[in-house]
Amino acid sequence: MKRAKGLSLILAGIFLAGGCTSNDTASKPAENEKDPNKKYTVTAIDFRFGDPPPKDGAGLKMINEKFNVDYQVQFVPQADYQEKLSAVVASGDVPDMVGFEAVDTRFAKWAGQGAFLPLDEYIGKYETLKNVPDHIWQSMKVNGKIYGIPTYYPEADLTPIIRKDWLDKLGLKMPKNYEELKAVALAFTKNDPDGNGKNDTYGFAMGEKINPDFDMGAYWNAESWLHKDKDGKYIPGMISDARKEMIQFFADLYKEKAITQDYAVLTWPDTNKEFFSGKAGIFVGAPRGMSEPYYAGLLELQPNAEFAPLYPFADPDGNTGYTATSGYGGITAISADLAKDPGKIKKILEMMEFGRTFYPREQRTPENKEFDWWWGNEGKGYTMQDGTAVLDPNFATEGKTPSTYYVDNAMWPPNEDVNEFYKDYKNEKVSKLAKELEEMHKSTKHYMNPVNGLVSETAQQKKEEFDQFLFDEQAKMIAGQRPVSEWDKMVEEFLNMGGQKMIEEYNSQIKGGEHWK
Amino acid sequence: MHHRSIPDRILEGFNMLALLLIGFVMIFPFLYIFTVSFSSLSDFLNNDFLLWPKQWVTDAYEYILSSQNFLRSLGVTVFITIAGTIVNLFFTATMAYALARPIAGQRFFILFVLFTILFSAGMIPTYLVVKATGLLNSIWSLIIPVAISPFYLIVMRQFFLNIPEELHDAALIDGANEGQVFWKIVLPLSKPALAAFGLFYAVMHWNNYFTGILYLNDPSLWPIQVVLRQIVVINEPNSALGSTAAMLESPPPPETIQMAAILLATLPILLVYPFLQKHFAKGVMLGSVKG
């Protein structure tokens, strides 16, 4: 008994000793809040798709020097971010800055519970915050207050592109409606557009989950809430009559082998391969983020390949335009603990403002001191090639630039038209395609999905289950295993699964007004 | 072995065929990965199917080995695997042996262990314990919390119970104390069990992915599986949030690089198997006790 007591004391000692090594991030009340030289410790947590920068990169040191802070940021691979964030927050250490992917249940719940700082009073004080369109600020609201700063993301979504050289070879015009598109897809399948004498080409490159969905406008888009049911409530595109037409359209083409035949089991990289190996003639592209190595591979196989965007078709309502993305690629929330330290809030917003400042392309040069610092100084973080600043290939993995350590490191442009993403591509043909895509987006309208930024409890819990069910049933219809005439039955099943509840939840929050922009 | 009957030989032939076929099915995916990793991307894109590289290209390997991250993480994983397995075997064997001896409170402790098999605390409570013990952001957070697998402990105890009591008694008569009996008699006799569980533990550490991300904030401490996932698994589009950001922000690296990464990250642990093979041999205990 005595021995056991001693042992438990030793154990307790070990536990207590261990407790001292954890980071003590509680901000002490400032002795003198007016002191501009006070060195703040700023903590942050965020997700990364790629490799996170190291703990001691040059970029981090530059941030600490410039802003006189001790900046401690940790990046988590995107796939596991939600779980890690839950654990970190549950352990009572909310970092000063917290990144979110979108307005999800966690963001809404924690903001509602007062974990974050309301930011409404700061919006008017910073240039880049003024650039954010109102509809995006609306998305950032929980219980009427703004709790997050959105990270810029282009409104141009992935939209259909087509092999222009195949069209030309077969003497076809750009399709203007689904009938013509169908004819083109069939011609790509049957008339040997690559002229190799083999029957080895077809129309649409498609993969699992009927992706891409080749909607030629928001009216046909599966994710857009544009259609209404008989009670005048918005419904998801997935169950609209337009979607039914699309499925019929795909089913007809599938029979004719004009769609990837094993699409139901193809992953996204495999779907890419169908197009970039020169087999399929219709795929998707966007002004930003297309993969040059993939295009280079295709151009190696078929040097004459030409690409062009497909313009959206006019829909029965008389609108022509694709659905826009939500317009933001992430959210930064600030811990509510900072409410008692206005100096620190100012410091953080100042740091963020620096990272969100937009420089037109001609100002992205070493002469621009701010930009030069942001990209880690010429010769270290980036080099000038033909008058364009090009980031060092290892800038992120080696932490060479301040930008890579930022939670929000996307410039927020004054408007969508000044991005000129096409200048980011070295390959002439890819650059041309990106330019044409940008022009297309400039010259057409866009549909703002009314459910952006709204939180539906049911959707958070069951959206994946709903999608799984609808994609499965629709895939059966495309493959001819279930008649399209059973569409209404499928919709009924979906509504009974909880779909109706999701529709109610969203509709109670959807604001009126014009969603086309 | 000579003069076998015809049916015997037919049966043997069938067995051989079946086993060869099964072996091929096992090896084939590796062969495919190996082939793709040494092929050029255009060869890969041009052919529906490759069984052997058309031309040997080592670009993918050069790309991976040029990145600090991959090699460093491989080093981290090797350390976790070796140190972790030693810790696992030491604590599992000592506790299992103690529970295999007639001691006071034995039943209570065994039930205690069984309880942890049936009920686990869950992620967040475990995280809180790791945090409170100051293991957060230390490599030991991947080793100490999983020092003993309760299931392996029970099985190992069973193994120790099967060692004849007479050996124990004989050793005591020869002047050994309990500790020496354990170190010099029991452990050497238990090589098959130690090898088997050592392998299980090692593979567990080698494949560790999630707790690495959960407990370690410093990317330079992440195990190889994390880096591998970054290279191989791309973020699925159509997530619950319907964001295409994942698709656009990180286009998947070419398959050749993915395959090379898989091969490099899997090979070391595969190489452990042949060396442990000999310990699985039976009959160590034969003849130790004359009946």
From TrEMBL, chain A:
Signal peptide start-end: 1-22
Keywords attached to this entry: Cell membrane, Lipoprotein, Membrane, Palmitate, Signal
SUPFAM superfamilies: Periplasmic binding protein-like II
Protein name: Extracellular solute-binding protein
Species this chain originates from: Metabacillus sediminis
TrEMBL record, chain B:
Transmembrane helix recorded as keyword: yes
Organism: Metabacillus sediminis
Extent of the signal sequence: none
UniProt domain ABC transmembrane type-1: residue ranges: 74-276
The protein's name in its UniProt record: Carbohydrate ABC transporter permease
Family of this protein: Belongs to the binding-protein-dependent transport system permease family.
Membrane topology: Multi-pass membrane protein
Superkingdom in the source lineage: Bacteria
Gene3D superfamilies noted in UniProt: MetI-like
Coiled coil, from the record: none
Transmembrane regions: 12-34, 74-99, 108-129, 135-155, 257-276
Subcellular location: Cell membrane
InterPro entries: MetI-like, MetI-like_sf
